[in-house]
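Lecture 7 notes: from sequence to structure.
We start with the chain below.
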Amino acid sequence: MSRGRPLTTQELPIAAAPYTVAVPTSVFGNSQACGGCLSVQCISITDGSSVAPCGTSAAPVTLLATDERPDAADGLDIGTFDTFAEIAGLSTYDAGRVQYLTLSWTWVACPPQLLDASGGIWMQAVSGSSQYYQRYSFSSYKLRLVSVLQNGVPLARQLDSTWVSNAVLTPGSLVTFILTAADGQSVKAVVADPWTANRSLGVNFS
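Predicted structure tokens for the same chain:
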């Protein structure tokens, strides 16, 4: 079980969406949790020194892991206060008096509303990429992404969750990507000049 609290206004990332969460370093790892989804369930509410049951409307809520919370061994930082209140099963007024929630959570497949509208994994060529050096950012995957191969060669995952290669690619050639999820399933996409544009790969994990 984990403790959960809402992020303050000052802590919210610029692009924070309502259903996002920052997870502990022990969970975040080498950015491998980034982009994965958690189903979070309220167990109890702590208000000062007292512990109370969750609200009657409390139900599991799926959140997208987007950041690391390095200052807590087991805590989750919920992206917005409205989502915090939804998890607690309380009105925003009543949730305002809650110090933190005791939560249970598990990894789940990301639902469509937390993915790109195309349904496919999104690949972005990071600025500075070329046929001699490629840096990609992948997002909108249903399951946590643990490995990417480019033409059979593993890409190096960076702490900012980008993937890097020093391969020399030929302009106009087709490049094969194999992406593997935490549960072992893989998907394949073939892309022309992948360093030149952002695109949906048209495939996703099941």
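Points to note: The CA atoms of residues 112 and 168 lie 36 Å apart. The first helix runs from residue 25 to 28.
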